[in-house]
Amino acid sequence: MNNTQPEQPRGPDDARIKALAARIDRPLALVGMMGVGKSTIGRKLAQLLGFGFADADEEIEKAAQMTVSEIFEQFDEAYFRDGERRVIARLMDEGNCVIATGGGAFVQDETRELIKDKAITIWLDSDVETLVERVSRNDKRPLLRGGDTREIVTRMKAEREPHYAQAQIHVMSDAGPHGATVNRILEALDTCL
Question: Which of 18, 69, 81, 176 has the fewest CB atoms within 10 Å, measured from its CB?
Answer without folding.
Answer: 176
